[in-house]
Amino acid sequence: QVQLAESGGGLVQAGGSLRLSCAASGHSFSSNVMGWFRQAPGEEREPVALKSWSSGLTYYADSVKGRFTISKDSAKNTMYLQMNSLKPEDTAVYYCAVRSSPIFATSAREFDYWGQGTQVTVSS
């Protein structure tokens, strides 16, 4: 049974940084596709940063390219999202997710396991 737990969200001023963590149990980051989604009030859940750890294929939303970085610590079985130069429009609940299939995908519907989410609020 895969369990994911996010942490690291909070309130930050525009231009600031946060690092989100996703601790996984029952799953190894060495396979499949994993990453981060976000959902703002009244909006659909959207992909932010996704990575196939086996192939190295990586996706970043255009709105976060150059500002966000996805990474992992295999020894800790933890995935991270480093978020720099944060903007008010980055405000959302951020979720980590795992796709069971090794085929790369970016739609939230294609991911099978989800964390509970962590709130990120960026003030102007």
Features of this protein?
mainly beta; 124 residues; 4-stranded antiparallel sheet
Question: Gist?
Answer:
Helices cover 0% and strands 50% of the residues. With 124 residues, the protein is an all-beta fold. Strands 2, 4, 5, 6, 9, 10 and 11 form a seven-stranded mixed sheet that branches. A four-stranded antiparallel sheet has the order 1-3-8-7, with no helix packed on it.
Itemize the secondary structure elements and their pairings.
Blueprint: E1 3-7, E2 10-13, E3 18-25, E4 33-39, E5 46-52, E6 58-60, E7 68-73, E8 78-83, E9 92-99, E10 113-114, E11 118-123
Parallel strand pairs: 2-11
Antiparallel strand pairs: 1-3, 3-8, 4-5, 4-9, 5-6, 7-8, 9-10, 9-11
H/I helix tally? 0
Q: How far apart are the first and last residues' alpha carbons, in Å?
A: 40 Å
Q: Give the tally of β-strands.
A: 11
Helix residue percentage: under 10%
Low-confidence stretches: none
Q: What is the 3D shape?
A: globular
Q: SS-based structural class?
A: mainly beta
Estimate the mean pLDDT confidence. Answer: 94
Beta-strand content:
over 45%
Sketch the major β-sheet: 7 strands, mixed
Q: Which series of helices and strands comes N to C?
A: EEEEEEEEEEE
Radius of gyration: 13 Å
General description of the model:
This protein is an all-beta fold. The chain has strands spanning 3-7, 10-13, 18-25, 33-39, 46-52, 58-60, 68-73, 78-83, 92-99, 113-114, 118-123. The strands form two sheets. Strands 2, 4, 5, 6, 9, 10 and 11 form a seven-stranded mixed β-sheet that branches. The chain is globular, with a radius of gyration of 13 Å.
